[in-house]
Design a protein that fits this description.
globular; about 210 residues; single chain; seven-stranded parallel sheet; 7 helices; alpha/beta
Length: about 210
């Protein structure tokens, strides 16, 4: 692999692999900046290298283009299921040698795939749901349920939803990456400074004590 994995990425990969061996569907939580896509791309490469098919599922064209860029950087041949406009834009930006209609790695937007299920031949061995907190919506649920024998890996930085839905009816296990402060301490992320505007209290206004 062209990716040089950090120790925490190797650790989460071992945990994900262990759950896969138990036929568990896994939710992988890693904070922004920790390399979720690069880590998952390592799993994609392992599956594709043994002739297995991987479906990388996204909900926006921007995320599809980002995944395509990562796979291009890693030298992974892939194909796209998306709008013709998006496909042409990506083909124009990158070297076409990594885009192939018979590639084992498929990147798809959920909105396009749901309209083509039954019309195209696709049978993934592994589904990777990017932004996995959205995998509870009806479109992604239908796609996932269409392939009940596929392994499933969800990727998210925030494993919670504002509507209170949980993930237990889709995912069997969760693997947590390092916290942001740990990444800063080991110099995998830059430290930060927080700025805020000054707060001026109106005369006579008192802060409520807890």
């Amino acid at each position: 692999s062209k990716t040089i994995l950090r120790n925490y990425q190797k650790r989460v990969l071992r945990e994900v692999s262990g759950y896969f061996q138990l036929d568990k569907r896994v939710l992988l939580q890693m904070p922004t900046g920790s390399g979720k896509t690069k880590t998952a791309a390592y799993i994609v490469k392992r599956f594709a290298s043994t002739g297995r098919t991987v479906l990388w599922l996204v909900h926006r064209d921007e995320l599809l283009a980002q995944a395509s860029q990562v796979f291009y950087d890693e030298g992974l041949r892939h194909r796209l299921i998306c709008s013709h406009t998006t496909a042409r834009a990506i083909a124009a930006k990158y070297d076409n040698s990594f885009l192939s209609d018979d590639a084992k790695i498929i990147i798809s937007t959920s909105q396009t795939l749901i309209r083509r299920i039954g019309k195209i031949e696709i049978n993934p061995d592994l589904i990777i749901a990017d932004e996995a907190h959205l995998s509870l919506n009806s479109t992604n649920r239908r796609i996932i349920s269409t392939f009940p024998n596929s392994k499933l890996l969800g990727l998210t930085a925030t494993p919670e939803r504002t509507d209170g839905q949980n993930f237990s009816d889709i995912y069997d296990a969760i693997v947590c990456g390092p916290q942001i402060y740990e990444l800063i301490q080991e110099e995998s992320l830059s430290d930060y400074r927080l700025y805020r505007p000054p707060v001026r209290m109106k005369e006579g206004v008192k802060l409520k004590s807890k």
